[in-house]
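Hi there,

I know you've been waiting on this one. I reran it after we fixed the sequence typo, so this is the corrected version. Both the input and the resulting structure follow.
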Amino acid sequence: MEATRHNAEAGRVAVVTAGPGQLQIEPEENPVPAAGEIVVEAIATGVCGSDVHLFVGDHPYSNYPLVQGHETVGLVAELGAGVDPALQGARVVVEPTLECGSCPECARGAYNRCERLEVIGVQRTGSLAGRFVTRAGKAHRVPSASDAAGWALVEPVAVACHAVERSGAEPGELVLVLGAGVIGLSVALALSRREPRAVVVAEPSEQRRRRVEELGLGIAVDPDEVDALLAERAPSGADLVFEATGLPEVLGGAHHHVRPGGRIVVLGQGAGDFAMPMIVMTRKELTLVGTRNSAGQFPAAIELLSGSPEFVTSVITHRFHPSEAGQAFAELTTPGTAALKVLLEFA
């Protein structure tokens, strides 16, 4: 059930992470776009796991003061020189990666792993500024919708689409997704386009397992039940495993669930190291696939969400005004919280 807590009278503000666990609410600024840039006025911004790590200070990129916000839908408020005038006033989602365009990875088309990559909301001022600057080419139009704020889900769904593309998922495969947070659910949604034989989602939370089943995204089981289910449906193991919890111990145990010649894809943004037996990697000839951000997947994510309104309604569990950002982070850092996707809505 969606929980809405929204201070509509607070007006437009900016949220600054001043230090670990410290937020300041400041007046919204009016940035000026350079040539080829636009100013986007945020409608809503999603708060994800990496935002929480940046906020508490255990993320490697936690450099303060920091204006966070990288999952964003907004309106194009101002155009820099050379930008198509038709973009003025458009409702857009913003791809947060800002690549250099000249390094070897950019030359390969893998701009998501640019050697000099900067990300809006991390190294650059993010959407919690209220009004922020980005490159015009990073803005993607989205259709009209009764819940415009819901388009803030495009960025995490694009991350999932990228991971599925990297995985090489084939029709008829049995896929195991470890974790039913926003990313795990988004992976299951993206997999629906690949016609898998089955998608199994392992998740300890009963409430999250129910959401998987209600959305028709797969077979939801407790992690303790994975082995029994695979013994029945795929005795050699899953063809493909997605790790979406960010817990090193979960990733370290993923090799138990994958068949010889199978693949393990890592999406979880966790701290620390994981251990996996080298002998298992060689004996099973496993492929371990890392994945970062997304590249070229925003159009696919927009299309996927356009046809999945029930996904948007289910996954967005809490809404706050940016002036209540402290409450939003408190909700996400509370043990046992029912929060899934938390939005900060400017209007």
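Quick highlight: Residues 159-290 form a domain with the Rossmann fold fold (CATH 3.40.50.720).

Best,
R. S.
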